[in-house]
Write a structure and sequence with these properties.
With 451 residues, the chain is of the alpha/beta class. The protein folds into 2 domains: 32-65 and 345-450, Aspartate Aminotransferase, domain 1; 70-342, Aspartate Aminotransferase, domain 2, CATH 3.40.640. Helices cover 37% and strands 15% of the residues. The chain contains 14 helices and 16 strands. A 7-stranded mixed beta sheet has the order 4-12-11-10-7-5-6, with helices on both faces. It has a 4-stranded mixed beta sheet with strand order 1-2-3-15. A 3-stranded antiparallel beta sheet has the order 13-14-16, with helices on one face. The chain is globular. Bound molecules: pyridoxal-5'-phosphate. Pyridoxal-5'-phosphate binds at residues 116-118, 121, 150-152, 222, 227-228, 256, 258-259, 284.
Length: 451
Amino acid sequence: MMSNNAALIERDLSVLWHPCTQMKDCETLPPIPIKRGQGVWLEDFEGNRYIDAVSSWWVNLFGHANPRINAAVRDQLEKLEHVILAGFSHEPVVELSERLVKLTPEGLSRCFFADNGSSAVEVALKMSFHYWRNLGKTGKHKFITLENSYHGETLGALAVGNVALFKETYDPLLMRAISAPSPDAFLREQGTSPGEHAAKIFDQMEELLERHAEETCAVIVEPLIQCAGGMRMYDPLYLSLLRDACDRHDVHLIADEIAVGFGRTGTMFACEQAGISPDFICLSKGLTAGYLPLSVVLTSERVYQAFYDDFEKLTAFLHSHSYTGNPLACRAALATLDIFESDNVIEKNRALATKMQQVTEPFRTHPNVGDVRQLGMTLAIEMVKDKEKKIPFPWQQRRGLKVYQYALGKGVLLRPLGNVVYFMPPYVITPEQIEHLAETAWRGIEIAVAA
Ligand SMILES: *Cc1c(COP(=O)(O)O)cnc(C)c1O
């Protein structure tokens, strides 16, 4: 029996340890207990409502309590909640695999399921390494990653990530990855286009591949947007150059589309914008539209065949997670794909993306906004101390947190990444709600930069 926020907060703070949180902050900024969700709205125990402008950490696609996904999960619940996927199978996981093979870039024909994004990254890394080993290339045991990249929190995923805030503390525990400079368009010189910048930065990747190909299993990238790294975006040219170079050097390409997949960049998958097929694609987050934890790695028939042999040869991929391919999660994913198809979502999102672009146009001339960047349904506004020189505010000042607090008071959940305020809303947001996001962000930024 819970009727107000305070009582639940008190119980929460006496037993919980929240993710990605300095718990001491909760003394002044306690967690907000949510009673129900409906569409873009989250509602607390006192009737306050918030627009979920970050899609509850980039997972929600079609709103909270979506009737169609609810119905699918409910239907599945009456039939089969879960079954072991080794030695057994079920209809939702088969159908989902068939549809993902059709939907993802050409050449990806095999689905291996896990239950969260980091695990999918671990699967791709291990599979790539193991593939080369099965081919007798035991010297390949390294990975190349981009600076400012993020691939998850488990030790393997953390090792190929590159955001200091998440990684540095654990450095002694991590395998050594080789890092290449990011093609991040924000870092380009004035007068250079994002494409020119990507091509120039790629030279260093080419050099690393030349030097390390013999010992490298794969290059892992977040296609087009380095999300956790501050929604930094780069030109698709980098991906086509990378695909070509990986082929020439006999190195795999792993596309981590955990955040950018399912329409966030304006196309179903970000790789499509470069016209490439990776050797591995990792999907999670939007896969179930924010309903249930599920992830999948798709790979090629060539990789699959390298593991296919008599058991005694010990070439099998002996990796599993307890909730691998959970039927409820697969049904949520199937309902999600149904909505994409029947509602022509990718097409319709274009109007919403244009709206986001229009309402944030005035931010470009704000004296403390260093960049407004957008790809499809992801839009980021970067606060800077010095607009000309793009000098950031010191992170210790926590300016983003001031935007967060202001926005909550205005009924908007914005959760800036450092100095980067961004919108990554569910696709059911309305043009009027987008206007409200922009107004709130504007006022929030004014307060944050003045402080
Ligand atoms: C969120 C994310 C992950 C990790 O997924 P989890 O489900 O949080 O483990 C990996 N890669 C990218 C690009 C992500 O954004």
